[in-house]
């Protein structure tokens, strides 16, 4: 029996952003990084509560120390999985607070496409209420993809 998934209504929040990056790692490695490996490169250690299943809710925090700050700030992220196609697609809701999605349930779609001997990873983030929030995420997703590439490079260069 097919599981019913309640998709967020984004009709009154049409703003979206996207980022793409080409990776030399296969889709299986990238899929794993976004599902069971999130706390190795993105989420704060020990903060991930996640079952990788459609309709399953998740929680994690990111930690960031702005330049000149005395301590790092932690940012909670909540959501649920909408679609999972192993090694191809992850779609999930994404809710953060002030300075993030401002409490709006947005949708993040992570697609992986083979391009010659590499993988094009595209992140689309939709459902923003205003340009400011969209622009913050446009910038942040570039940083996140660069961080993922850096982490994978360190991890897999040790194996060679």
TrEMBL record:
It comes from the Bacteria. Belongs to the AHA1 family. This is Activator of Hsp90 ATPase homologue 1/2-like C-terminal domain-containing protein. InterPro entries: ASHA1/2-like_C, START-like_dom_sf. SUPFAM superfamilies: Bet v1-like. Residues 27-151 form the Activator of Hsp90 ATPase homologue 1/2-like C-terminal domain.
